[in-house]
């Protein structure tokens, strides 16, 4: 298999560096909560900025070829609602250096049968899971660009803002009461930064200062310059949402720094 590693554009001509890499053939299946096969579901394996897709057959199985020695987030889209947001089925799925892998069946939060016209379908709606429906970040100057829940990943792009800009707070809106656990990439900061906060249904203030303030002591916020010094030009934070019924959802929040 091959994928573009670097692209340079000179005088309207794109020079693409194509990296050839032996792929791992992954076989798996998607089932609903009753163990019934889900046919026609688009399955995606994500690792960094790499995305690989397949579609399940009539028996719910799929085959996908991905680069070896990586960890993947696995997403699937309800075949009855092809324009809906994908559901996250697995995180940190490790694919090593073998040629073939058989992945255990993954349970999807939607049914095996498509929804009838005007009906809600037989599967569990994604609204049964805790979800972030809105996010804001308060800064002292400029406006960051937010992309929410794009393929299970949200981003906050600060790249157009001055490094002196301070993050002073923020808010998160959730569809049900839950606990949010937030952890940074451990390879970007020793042991990672972690915190938990109880959220009520609706809008909640995020205690960003107590979470990130340790990086910029004495400030009324944390500067983008300091974040870049610690984490580099980009860093991921992993949010785990757990409601009172024990249902858990995951969101990756990426920061792009100036």
Summarize the SSE layout with pairings.
Elements lengths: L1 E9 L2 E8 L2 E9 L10 E6 L2 E6 L5 E7 L2 E8 L9 E9 L4 E3 L3 E2 L24 E8 L5 E6 L2 E5 L8 E9 L3 E7 L9 E6 L2 E5 L1 H5 L9 E2 H8 L2 E10 L4 E9 L2
Parallel strand pairs: 3-9, 3-10, 13-20
Antiparallel strand pairs: 1-2, 3-6, 4-5, 4-7, 7-8, 11-14, 12-13, 14-17, 14-18, 15-16, 15-19, 19-20
Number of domains: 2
Q: What's the number of helices?
A: 2
Give the tally of β-strands: 20
The CATH architecture category of the largest domain equals Sandwich
Based on CA inertia axes, which overall geometry fits? Answer: globular
Low-confidence spans: pLDDT under 50, at least 5 residues?
A: 114-126
Distance between the termini: 34 Å
Order of neighbouring strands in the sheet with most strands: 12-13-20-19-15-16
Sketch the major β-sheet: 6 strands, mixed
Strand content: over 45%
Q: Can you tell me the CATH topology of the largest domain?
A: Immunoglobulin-like
- Helix amount, in percent? under 10%
Helix and strand run: EEEEEEEEEEEEEEEEEHEHEE
Q: Which structural class fits the helix and strand makeup?
A: mainly beta
Rg, Cα atoms, Å: 20 Å
Mean of all residue-level pLDDT scores: 78
The CATH C-level name of the largest domain is Mainly Beta
């Amino acid at each position: 298999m091959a994928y573009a590693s670097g692209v340079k554009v000179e005088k309207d001509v794109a020079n693409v560096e194509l990296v050839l890499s032996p792929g791992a053939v992954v076989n798996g299946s998607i089932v609903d909560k009753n163990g019934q096969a889900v046919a026609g579901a688009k399955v995606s394996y994500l690792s960094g900025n790499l995305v690989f897709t397949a579609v399940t057959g009539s028996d719910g199985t799929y085959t996908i070829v991905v680069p070896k020695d990586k960890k993947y987030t696995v997403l699937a889209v309800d075949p009855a609602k092809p324009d809906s947001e994908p559901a996250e089925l697995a995180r940190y799925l490790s694919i090593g250096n073998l040629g073939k892998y058989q992945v255990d069946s993954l349970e999807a939060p939607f049914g095996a049968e498509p929804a009838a016209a005007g009906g809600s379908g037989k599967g569990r709606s994604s609204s049964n899971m805790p979800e972030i429906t809105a996010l804001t970040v308060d800064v002292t100057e400029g406006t960051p660009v937010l992309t929410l829940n794009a393929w299970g990943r949200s981003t906050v792009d600060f790249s157009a803002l001055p490094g002196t800009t301070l993050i002073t707070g923020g808010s998160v809106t959730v569809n049900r009461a839950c606990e949010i656990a937030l952890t940074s990439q451990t390879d970007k900061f020793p042991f990672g930064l972690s915190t938990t906060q109880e959220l009520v249904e609706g809008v909640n203030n995020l205690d960003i200062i107590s979470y990130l303030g340790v990086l910029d002591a004495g400030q009324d916020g944390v500067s983008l310059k300091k974040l870049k010094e610690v984490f580099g030009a980009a860093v991921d934070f992993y949010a785990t949402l757990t409601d009172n019924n024990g249902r858990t959802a995951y969101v990756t929040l990426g920061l792009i720094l100036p």
